[in-house]
Amino acid sequence: MAAESYGFARMVSIRFRPGTVALAMDHFRTVSTPLVRAQAGSLGIVGIGDHASGNGYAISFWETQESLEASNANPQVVEAMMGYALDGRLVRG
User: Fold this and answer.
1) In the predicted model, is pLDDT for residue 62 greater than 90?
2) Average per-residue pLDDT in the chain?
3) Could you tell me the CATH number of the domain that includes residue 28?
């Protein structure tokens, strides 16, 4: 019996500055999540953040490898993800 493919996932980890996880999660909910969900082939996205350690993770799910790879090329999605790094209040240097 051949193995079935159920989709593809990408996991991104970010280390935030202490005390900024709530701000980062708000950005995730209001900016990143709607952009990812609007992409062709998107099956959804989840995010978690640990306030104590400053670690955050986002896992996005995709129908095909092609849709996952195409999501990397969308300038709006790339800009939204870079927003975490460009906002010096959020990401640890």
Assistant:
1) yes
2) 81
3) 3.30.70.100
Exposed, middle or buried: residue 36 (CB in 10 Å: 0-12, 13-18, 19+)? buried
CB 30 within 8 A of CB 37: no
Structure-block tokens of residue 4: 């079935």
Q: Is residue 91 part of a domain?
A: no
pLDDT band with cut points at 50, 70 and 90 for residue 84? low
Cα separation, 64 vs 79, in Å, equals 23
In a domain, 90, yes or no: no
Assigned token pair, 53: 């350690």
Task: Answer whether 82's CB lies under 8 Å from 59's CB.
Answer: no
Identify the DSSP state of 74: -
Domain count, the chain: 1
pLDDT tens track for 35-57? 999 999 999 999 988 888 888 88
